[in-house]
Amino acid sequence: EDFGPDGKSVMVYEERYMTEPDLVCFEGTHGVVVLFAALGISVWVLGACLGIGLLCSRSIEQLGVWGTFTQRRFGYFIKGLEPGYWWWEFFVKRLDLLLTGLVAGSSLAPDDKAKVMLQVMLAGIFFAAQAICK
Predict the structure, then answer these.
(1) pLDDT at 4
(2) Structure confidence by residue, pLDDT tens digits, 44-53
(3) Average pLDDT estimate for 6-35
(4) Helix 93-105 and helix 29-63: axis angle, to 10°?
(5) Other CB atoms within 10 Å distance of the CB of residue 10
(6) In b/e form, how buried is each residue of 46-58, taking b as 16+ CB within 10 angstroms?
């Protein structure tokens, strides 16, 4: 039991695995594993988005948004978008998916009500961004 500066007991919140309660999450070797996993996933996801985005950008600069090669190769991402917002699907929507998955699949929020509130907040933020860029 921990005590605060005034001598009263303080509740300590620790995240533990249900199947292995002796392991405290994000501490010791588990923290190192989480760090490498997060780094690997970040490089993989961000690298793919940046790589495809750069290829699309180069194709748009050389051939234009409506060029045959650009439409054939990147049309899935840019169809239906204004020519100045071709990057929307690559970066903004992928960030939206990444943050939604992070909130849903992690212990970022301690209970389900907080997760729902965070999801609604994210939806509002990205809806507002879409309304501004429309």
Answers:
(1) 66
(2) 888 888 898 8
(3) 80
(4) 160
(5) 10
(6) eeebeebbeebee
